[in-house]
Write a structure and sequence with these properties.
Elements (H helix, E strand, L loop, with lengths): L1 H13 L24 H4 L1 E7 L8 E8 L4 E10 L8 E14 L2 E13 L4 H18 L5 E8 L3 E6 L7 E6 L2
């Protein structure tokens, strides 16, 4: 779950720091938090994209797999530069965590994240190191991460980071 928080922090950095004000996500209307989550609907593999990405932020794709044993695996690839034809900066992020449900929230604990460069570009290596350092510092807090689930069916999942200003909203479709 902290993977999305990491992405939200790092994507603006990767898009080149300027003295411009911090970009805001586009307005998006999402349903209210669900009252409760049917665990059986959540179990499986999901492919997710941001429904309200930051302007000019690098694109990322994400998959999540929620196991019946309460463990989850989350993988993401972030890249930039492809739209301009330059060699892209590319990061691979892999997280594992324990997941549980509290009302309409999905809770992640015992998060472990590994970040690697997705290509041989120097910027990829630099950003992977920075991202790993940030991931390691999040791991030291031992505070659970939480997502507010806004929609859940057998084929669709919509959620956003809970208790975060200007949260990313993830729209997911079931893969298996």
């Amino acid at each position: 779950m902290r993977l999305t928080v990491l992405m939200a922090f790092l994507l603006p950095l990767a898009a080149c720091a300027t003295s411009e004000p911090t970009p805001q996500r586009s307005a998006l209307t999402v349903p209210a938090e669900v009252a409760s989550i049917d665990r059986s609907l959540l179990i499986g593999r999901w492919s997710c994209t941001e429904m309200n990405p930051l302007p000019d932020a690098p694109a990322f794709t994400q998959t999540m797999r929620f196991g019946t044993d309460g463990r989850a695996v989350q993988d993401a690839v972030a890249s930039t530069g492809e739209e301009t034809g330059t060699e892209p900066m590319r990061l691979n992020l892999h997280s594992t965590y324990d997941w549980s449900i509290e009302g309409g929230r999905l809770i992640a604990t015992n998060v472990e994240t590994d970040v690697t460069a997705g290509n041989d570009e120097a910027m990829s290596s630099w950003m992977a190191g920075l991202t790993q350092m940030i991931a390691d510092s999040f791991g030291d807090t031992n505070e659970p991460g939480a997502y507010s689930v806004r929609e859940l069916s057998s084929s669709r999942l919509v959620m956003q980071a809970a208790d975060v200003d200007d949260p990313a909203v993830l729209g997911c479709t079931r893969v298996s």
